[in-house]
Amino acid sequence: MEKAEVAIIGGTGFEDLFKNSRQIRIKTPYGTVPSLFVGKVKDKKIIFLLRHGPDHSVPPHKVNYRANIYALHKAGVKRILATNAVGAINHDFKPGDVVVPNDFVDFTKFRRTTFYDKPPVTHIDVSKAYCQEIRKILIENAKRRSLHVWEKAVLICTEGPRFETPAEIGIFRHLGCDIVGMTGFPEVALARELEMCYASICYVSNMAAGMQQRLSAIGVTKISKQILPKIEEVLIESVEALPAKRDNCTCASSLQDARFS
Predict the structure, then answer these.
(1) Domain at 55, CATH number
(2) Is 208 left (phi over 0), alpha (psi -120 to 50) or beta?
(3) What pLDDT, in 10s, does the model give residues 28-45?
């Protein structure tokens, strides 16, 4: 089996980043993952995962998140750098901005969100939901690229595939959420359950419902094409900057004291 310690999960618009990599398939207890690719960032071997599949055919509510994260774990991945297209709830955020969230709210309905359905009963701590070390590196490299970066934000994940209503967005804003997307959860929690580091660099592709005249997938794609080349550069530079050991975060000890014996 191909092994690598770093993975990049790409969403909308990232299909081209993986075109020069070698495709692999990994079987897991939750299904086979065909959208994995092995490549290199400079001298570091990495695994790329296309969240929606190579031809963007899998909608957000049908992504097999457990199979995806478990496949990366099975391949030896210790760190995951993810990307997400999001809508802005916070009035200060604008299309083209980059956001590195520090917390999340789960508003999904039907997704399988844990690996621990059987004993031992396991409760992971997500007080610091995203890896602090990777977040710091992503922020530094985004600023170096002169991107407009929001260093803290609450991401709310909805079920999809429809966009949210203006009423829902109003509720989310009242709850303190800054951005909304359909794919950020349960990836972050599943990675933590397997003691993997996970952080996301999001880009604002649109203002949320009620904050612009209408929403469309075409509009999201248009903004994505403008910002993605810089996001790719940030990801590459961040992979290069990752230290050899995970000494500056607690992700690797997430299961310590998490289980009832």
Answers:
(1) 3.40.50.1580
(2) beta
(3) 999 999 889 998 887 889
